[in-house]
Amino acid sequence: MGRLGKREHCGRCPTKERAIGMDSASGRAAGGNAIVCDAAGGGTSSGKPAAFRKATAAVDPPEAGSGAAGLETAAVIVAAGKSSRMGGRVRKPFLKVAGREVLAWTIEALARVRHVKRFVIVTRPEDKAEAMRIVRRAAAAIAGREVRFAGGGAIRRDSVLNGLKACGEGVRIVAVHDAARPLASPELIERAIETAARSGGAILACPIRDTVKLVDAEGRIVRTIPRDGLYAAQTPQVFRLDMFRRLAERIGRKGLDVTDDAAILEACGKTVLVVDSGPENLKITTPEDIGIAEALLEARAWRRVNDRGVSAGPRTLGGRGVGRRKGNAHRAGI
Fold it and tell me: Which of 46, 160, 171, 321 has its CB 3.0 to 4.6 Å from that of 332, i.e. a possible disulfide?
């Protein structure tokens, strides 16, 4: 983005001001901006409150106001896990996949959902500065929608609750999404949002295709579990915000731990519906998943090449050029 220009009061951030992105060539305020805010009232790593910043945006996000009334959604991206199964010192949201951080791919996928009006990114304090850098680089995709940050908790339930508290007013639906799922389909997310608006809750999930065995502590098969009706739960998991926030607070007061967000509604006797998402909505959990995710991202890029035909220039996948011609898609530098 260009240099920072004049400052204005925003009325939401503790510092009561924001920096407006200015076009470095013309000095005019840049259009299509993304607001970055520490909405939970926390500070920067130095202890000072974080100011709003507007970062320039310039690609094809959903048009402002294109989401249907009553479907305004806050996307809570949970990026505060330990990543113990991955190994290494870098947590999953900040690993590079096809040249970009996993969190960047995840933000871009959610930014393509027309109902999403606000982002809340839940991070550990030591990861917040890096998450903010990723958000600024993704400003073109975010394009004018507000971004807030919330602190991670000791367990996932607490992290999600912190994210819910940061959602604020003006949204009716919340979509809770694992930062380590960069391949969620925007079309299926929209379907889940529309389903949750009608029913109260909906999740993306994939029918289990493998035969499932129950195994004892010694590794002996106890029995085969019929897979009819068995689904592997994924994210986003989408709910009416007011109801979900109330139930999550109730479960938190009882000290009950849950393995996913839908289990909160299940424990309270509420209905949650499933939107079949298929196996492509991969969660990056182990080092082997990185190669799978890169292959899936490249396959998607090729599908766009073949679907759209002629392009006026090269596309990139993680900084690697992807050229295309009608009837003869080709790559450059992959």
Answer: 321
Answer whether residue 222 is part of any domain: no
What pLDDT does 303 receive?
A: 77
Pick from 293, 287, 292, 297: nearest CA to 317: 297
CA distance 327 to 306: 8
In sequence order, the β-bridge partners of residue 34 are 55
Q: How many folded domains does the chain comprise?
A: 2
Please tell me whether residues 243 and 291 are part of one structural domain. no
How far is the C-alpha of 334 from the C-alpha of 326, rounded, in Å?
19
> Which helix (H) or strand (E) segment is 244 a member of?
helix 241-254
193 in Cβ contact with 204 (< 8 Å): no
The pair phi, psi for residue 217, each rounded to 5°, is: -65, -25
C-alpha to C-alpha distance for 211 and 164, rounded to whole angstroms: 37
Work out the angle between the directed axes of helices 186-199 and 102-111 (0-180°, nearest 10).
60
Residues 324 and 260 placed together within one structural domain of the fold: no
Boundaries of domain holding 128: 4-189+237-270
Q: In whole angstroms, what is the distance from residue 182 CA to residue 37 CA?
A: 23
List C-alpha distances in Å: 9 to 12, 17, 128, 200. Answer: 9, 4, 23, 36
Higher pLDDT, 310 or 193: 193
C-alpha dihedral over 176, 92, 100, 129, to 10 degrees? Answer: 80
Q: Are residues 118 and 266 in the same domain?
A: yes
Residue 314 lies in a domain: yes
pTM of the entire structure?
Answer: 0.76
pLDDT at 15 over 90: no
Residue 118: count other Cβ atoms within 10 Å of its Cβ. Answer: 22
